[in-house]
Amino acid sequence: MSKGIKMLSAVDALRRPHTLESLQTQEDNKQTIPVLFCDGGDCLVPVRFVPRGMRNNPGKEPSDRAAYIGLTAATTSEHKPGCKYDALGQLKVIVADQSDRDFIGALDAGKSELRLLLLHNRLGGKTLSGVETPIPASSASAHSRYPTTYQLTDKKLDSYLRTTADILKLRERCETDEVLRATLVLRLGDKKIRWSEFFFEPDRYEEAWAMVRRRGAQCHPFAIMGSVERLSLPKTGSTQVNSYLNLAAERNLTDDRNVKHTFNVSIGHRDSEWLETLPAGTEVIAFGVWSATAPTSNDVPQRKDPGKLMTYVNHGLTLFPKFKAQIFQPGS
Q1: Residue 77 confidence (pLDDT)
Q2: Residues contacting 175, CB < 8 A, separation 6+
Q3: Mean pLDDT of all residues in the chain?
């Protein structure tokens, strides 16, 4: 099972260092890429360089793929315990640092369970039908019914948000969700959540939008990763109070070449000065309870042939964070 984190550097057989930038330069100059090994201490397992390029997304526009260094395709290739690129090891550290067992609880076979219900409630989620509100294990036996009066304190909320952010940052650094999926179970009350429905990359905004539209108020909190495109401020004299941080949208084609579906992701908040600290091009992860608007269409004349119209079908995903800790940069 791959346990790798995307790396920024490696060493060759002579232990000479190679950065991601230097390897990309060699690739651009059509030079031979040396055999590479992990530079995480004494790990030295074989790794590979994956150059930047375009990712083909069936039914969607191609998207950029950033260069990275990762484990080889060999199924036996794993980082050694203690290596800074060992995703499982990093996850264990995050779990151990969260002292509240009511947020991350231990399961059998070395697995843990991330319990999101209280966090969901404090972030503005609607009451979920058929889901009970838990209290700390120290306050109730395993066989007693959970009361609905337990409140999440601000101190615990801060701790929960930090832990969730650490887990999502780790997920962003991993090539896949394989390790986290096998080790950390996501739960909202009595419902399990798939990792594929908890973290959405820029080429999966359509899936996130469809999930929110399908589940409505019953949808769990989840994270979206993306790049800031622009900040929209309220127009002078308008009654609008929120500014909106807009991420680069996902644009998908249909069988009809004159129709294009656009999936827009926005973060709304009254504090425009805070949003301005995240300029265009900044990579962010936004976590919380999202809302999705119904599609709207707009016909626009094509530049080369004004007589023909291009129909843009717009879909909106919006987050109104209650706490600024819900928005963070992956490398922070």
Answers
A1: 76
A2: 2, 4, 5, 6, 68, 70, 71
A3: 88
